[in-house]
Amino acid sequence: MTEDKKQNIIDAAIQVFSKHGYERGTVSEIANQANIAKGSFYHYYNSKEEIVYDLFKMVFDKFLDSWNTIIEKDISPDKKVELLIDRSFDDIIEMLEEKNVTSLILIFEIMFFLYRKSLKTGKENVIEKYFLKYYDILKPIFEEGQEADIFRQDIDPSYLAYLFFSMVDGFGLHFMMQKDNFDAEKSRKYLKAILLEGLIQK
Amino acid sequence: MTEDKKQNIIDAAIQVFSKHGYERGTVSEIANQANIAKGSFYHYYNSKEEIVYDLFKMVFDKFLDSWNTIIEKDISPDKKVELLIDRSFDDIIEMLEEKNVTSLILIFEIMFFLYRKSLKTGKENVIEKYFLKYYDILKPIFEEGQEADIFRQDIDPSYLAYLFFSMVDGFGLHFMMQKDNFDAEKSRKYLKAILLEGLIQK
Amino acid sequence: MTEDKKQNIIDAAIQVFSKHGYERGTVSEIANQANIAKGSFYHYYNSKEEIVYDLFKMVFDKFLDSWNTIIEKDISPDKKVELLIDRSFDDIIEMLEEKNVTSLILIFEIMFFLYRKSLKTGKENVIEKYFLKYYDILKPIFEEGQEADIFRQDIDPSYLAYLFFSMVDGFGLHFMMQKDNFDAEKSRKYLKAILLEGLIQK
Amino acid sequence: MTEDKKQNIIDAAIQVFSKHGYERGTVSEIANQANIAKGSFYHYYNSKEEIVYDLFKMVFDKFLDSWNTIIEKDISPDKKVELLIDRSFDDIIEMLEEKNVTSLILIFEIMFFLYRKSLKTGKENVIEKYFLKYYDILKPIFEEGQEADIFRQDIDPSYLAYLFFSMVDGFGLHFMMQKDNFDAEKSRKYLKAILLEGLIQK
DNA sequence: CATGAATGAGGATTCATTCAT
DNA sequence: TATGAATGAATCCTCATTCAT
Got the DSSP string for chain A? Predict the structure, then answer.
């Protein structure tokens, strides 16, 4: 029940931060958006900063779950990779549509905020940790693919996972900026083509 | 000369923003760092925001120049692509070293700041424009490579340029977060291997 | 019984206020310390301020009782004065030890709080009243001592009581600040010596 | 010149804190009283707390100076002590008159504030230090008096200074509360009588 | 051009108090 | 009685920007 309220506030925070960015988004506006009093925000979070961690976890866990449903499928590893690209692509598209509260730009900003935080405080970098998690769930796919002679065997599967994810993310970044200049479906098709080709065993 | 002073301020701003981020970096600290009075800042820039544009231009033009020196070389297109990856990689490494004032994280943040700005004001997205510039100088390489039967011909060269750049950028993003977990030289080698393989004509 | 609960809350309040001072001590922390809910505090006290009066009374009545046991003894007036100094001294020492919840500093702060309150509201100064009570129970000792030719007769016994108490209090104030610089037992001895000498009839 | 402005702010702060106490006195009201903008306060002081130290120093140095003028006089030590009591008494009276900005209660409160601060932070107790200073300038008087066979010789002169000051302060504390119940001049006379008698060599 | 004092709007946070359950 | 979520006024502090010198 308390969790419902928290979720309500997180949703509000996502909206506000999506609109203005973390620094420019105010607790007042979040409270407003969540239909609570300014002071009530502090019943659920000790500070403006604290909510970022919840927000981050929520978003990044959602991705994790989303990917896991693919990874658990009973299909070939290369098909899984293809589906993962598709899923990422769909997520990107969805987040770029205004109706969706979780904006892509916010996710990037949160990543940088948390990264900077860890640099300053010396505390653990939660982003780094989550990325490692992502790589870890991708890794078995590449291992399986290498064993099946589908994926190239000259690259350590950890690096395959890491580079694969890098590239998909990089695509998201540029597509965000260029969605008016490049066709989405073409982008998807070509991204898949290049990535798969780069990974396939000749 | 005024341009010298401006450069002085830009350098200071890069240092300050690198350290704290744009929002948290203050005009006071920039003035301090530049050894001028706070008020003097406003002789050169009308606002804190204005300097971001100069800063952005400076950094992104430097990249443009850096890449152009490669593109103008008299070597094969695939070699050019390889050198471009190397150059990007070297830049990333350099920026991640503390001595360099231009921090990688700042560049990403500036991109997001300007992107958000354009979203809010509806004004032109300078990032989008610059990225298009980047794609444009890459495009001839891919065209040349396609004509020479080196690069795959099933993908529009504009898209090749755009996806190539996306992937290199994505790599920078993840490498920044993971530099303690993945070996730099291995990363470079594998990145090249995957990207080139993905682009090459079979 | 309600009084038990109240006492429980007062004890908690003393702990909290001792630690942080009245202004900085919060109702939340008091409730916490008393193992009740924040809201329950208001079943027993109408406001944070109200508890100060109870707290004050409790502490100051304890002093009154403590002194009365001495005054009622069947000993000479000068001996009584000596014992009163000793008792005060012991109380001061005890309050300065950390284990004791009633800190000396808190007592002074409460005095000032209530004094200021009376200045602002024009309502009766409870501190003034209690001090008068203290003087009043001391007065008979001095009267008795004057009649017995022990204490000096050139000073009104009311003033003797008032000045005696002032000086003992002043000692507490300075000893609190200087407990690391002046030896307790020497202080006690000398305080007695000076005070008694100053009061004795030559 | 900056010092003038600072003094202006200190004066305002004394007024405001005298009226409401330190915790309840607001930076806004200080700024108002000083006829400056709220933000300007922070050009001169980094925090509300910081000004307390200046304020404390100003007040306590003034006392120091005031006492020194007596100590430097070419008169007998017992006469000096008498004058010191008179001076303290006059200061107390003056501070209790409303027209004077430096209120007595504020001085006590500052003492407690700083004492508590030192307890919490473990940093040096400036009050303790200043009191030691006070004792130190009194000490030579008592030494001189002991040598001249005027003051009692059974008490260490440091303790004489410390106890003398304690008692005068204690008197201030009680007189503040009781000024309506006890005559000022009688109080002065009796205080002197007791204190001097207590100190004199028989 | 240079300075830095002055401004004041704005934002995070605290906390005594209320009240529905 | 007991609870603790909700409130919102109040407060400290920040900082981009202005402007008189």
Answer: -HHHHHHHHHHHHHHHHHHH-TTT--HHHHHHHTTS-HHHHHHH-SSHHHHHHHHHHHHHHHHHHHHHHHHTSSS-HHHHHHHHHHHHHHHHHHHHSTT-SS-HHHHHHHHHHHHHHHHHH----HHHHHHHHHHHHHHHHHHHHHHTT-B-SSS-HHHHHHHHHHHHHHHHHHHHHHTTTS-HHHHHHHHHHHHHHHHB--
Q: What angle (nearest 5°) sits at the alpha carbon of residue C148, between those of residues C131 and D163?
A: 45
pTM of the full structure: 0.91
Interface C:D, Cβ pairs < 8 A: 160
CA-to-C1' span, B202 to E8 (A): 67
Instruction: Using a 7 Å CB cutoff, list residues 14-53 of A near strand E.
Output: 25-28, 38-39, 41-42, 46-49
> Running DSSP on this structure, what letter comes out for residue B100?
-
Interface present between D and C (3 or more CB pairs within 8 Å): yes
User: Do residues C175 and C125 lie in contact, with contact meaning Cβ atoms separated by under 8 Å?
Assistant: no
Residue of B87, B127, B17, D143 lying closest to A112 (CA atoms): B17
Residuewise pLDDT in 10s, chain C (202 residues):
577 889 999 999 999 999 999 999 999 999 999 999 999 999 999 999 999 999 999 999 999 999 999 999 999 999 999 999 999 999 999 998 876 767 899 999 999 999 999 988 888 899 999 999 999 999 999 999 999 999 999 999 999 999 999 999 999 999 999 989 999 999 999 999 999 987 776 7
CA gap A161, A148 in Å, rounded: 17
Give DSSP secondary structure letters for chain C: -HHHHHHHHHHHHHHHHHHH-TTT--HHHHHHHTTS-HHHHHHH-SSHHHHHHHHHHHHHHHHHHHHHHHHTSSS-HHHHHHHHHHHHHHHHHHHHSTT-SS-HHHHHHHHHHHHHHHHHH----HHHHHHHHHHHHHHHHHHHHHHTT-B-SSS-HHHHHHHHHHHHHHHHHHHHHHTTTS-HHHHHHHHHHHHHHHHB--
- Estimate in Å the CA B37 to C1' E2 gap, whole number: 7
Can you tell me which residue has its alpha carbon closest to the C1' of nucleotide F14?
D39
Return the residue of C nearest to D134 by Cα. Answer: C174
Q: Do A116 and B105 touch (CB under 8 A)?
A: yes
Residue of A177, A186, A196 to mutate when probing chain B, most B C-beta within 10 A: A177
Q: Do D162 and C178 touch (CB under 8 A)?
A: yes
Query: Which of D's residues 41-70 have CB atoms within 7 A of nucleic strand E?
Result: 42-44
